[in-house]
Amino acid sequence: MNNIILIKNAELYAPQRLGKMDVVIAGGRIAAVGNDFNLAGSNLPVTVIDASDCYLTPGFVDSLVHFIGGGGEGGFATRTPEMQLTDATLGGVTTAVGVLGTDATTRTLTNLLAKAHALDSEGITTYCHTGSYEIPCRTLTGNITDDLILIDKFIGVGEIAISDHRSSQPTTDEIRKVAAAARVGGILAGKSGVVSVHMGAGERILLPIYQAVAGTELKLKQFYPTHMNRNRRVFEAGLEFATKGGVIDFTTSTTDFDLQHGEVAAAAALAEALEFGIKPMQLTLSSDGNASLPIYNDEGELLGLQVGSVQSLYQSARQAITQHKVSLSDAICSITAAPAAILGLKQKGRIATGLDADIVLLRRDDLAIDTVIAKGKLLVQQGEALVKGTFER
């Protein structure tokens, strides 16, 4: 599948709507975007895809996935399973960022990095964050700055937990030092150096971030809080954070219990935030795929546990379009251009000549995923996986 691919007559969303276009893919990159391309006389091996009945969008960017699963809050038997290639590709995800969570003892950075390389070799683009919920951060080299400079796949830190009973209850100074180290490492390595923040349901909400930034040269935009739809209070705090210039992330994996007990569904959160006036590039969705989704009572006692799904990412974006009247461009932006920008992934999240050839074709009639191309290779066609992970059947 290394030949040239010509996609004809697609309605292109880059993610902004550009109208009917052809796209040429060669060498893993987008070689050309325009109209009425004809490569029949080029004497080159060309695969032609008629996309007349499809929308063409960038491949989806999932900014928070637990590649190697998460530590189950119900004991060893509840450790969640690893992600497989088609968990991502059948959901249109062509770029994903792996993280550790509560468990950084039996789930390790070395394991996370190895899994990232495995998924990359199987077909998608992967990155990771160093660290986990806790501060001081677990690292591979001994400090955050060195990890970001010396390890190509590490692009940020996190997800650091705040306002949560599972956090390490970090001090303001500890959060500042993490952000400062990430900033320097990011600058020297040409990476975002973002600090991914796990937002709990505690009373302080985003106060630890505001306190960390106050009186320093740190910027709010270096902090990237996720789970900002955890409940109504957290959601409204997120809107305020965005009005101050920050980027906020809504988690698409959920449980019926959480939705019935105050969580704002990601699709609804995206629609309301846009209606509130937050710019599309400040709003992202992430799946929290393969994470443990614990259900706690008010006393912090575990009632049950489910597993996050990478495929919930596009399911929520699609729901935002079909049920909440979010435009296709804005919904796709939340899972392409917006997360790529905050993560510093300049080759991802958009359709333009010279960028990585990560593309999704959506059927116009029902917005179902038809075709997925990652790094210039066809991985999904007509909704079926052409390529599977090494141990998938």
UniProtKB/TrEMBL annotation:
Subcellular location: Cytoplasm
TM annotation in the entry: none
Keywords of this entry: Hydrolase, Metal-binding, Metalloprotease, Protease, Zinc
GO molecular function, one term: beta-aspartyl-peptidase activity
Cofactor: Zn(2+)
Annotated ranges, domain Amidohydrolase-related: 268-378
EC number annotated for this UniProt entry: 3.4.19.-
A Pfam family recorded for this sequence: Amidohydro_1
Chief location: cytoplasm
Main EC class the enzyme belongs to: hydrolase
Keyword Cytoplasm annotated: no
Source species, domain of life: Bacteria
Manner of cofactor binding, per the entry note: Binds 2 Zn(2+) ions per subunit.
Gene3D superfamilies (alphabetical): Metal-dependent hydrolases, Urease, subunit C, domain 1
Post-translation changes: Carboxylation allows a single lysine to coordinate two zinc ions.
Task performed by this protein: Catalyzes the hydrolytic cleavage of a subset of L-isoaspartyl (L-beta-aspartyl) dipeptides. Used to degrade proteins damaged by L-isoaspartyl residues formation.
Family the UniProt entry places it in: Belongs to the peptidase M38 family.
Name of the featured protein: Isoaspartyl dipeptidase
Origin species: Rheinheimera maricola
Gene: iadA
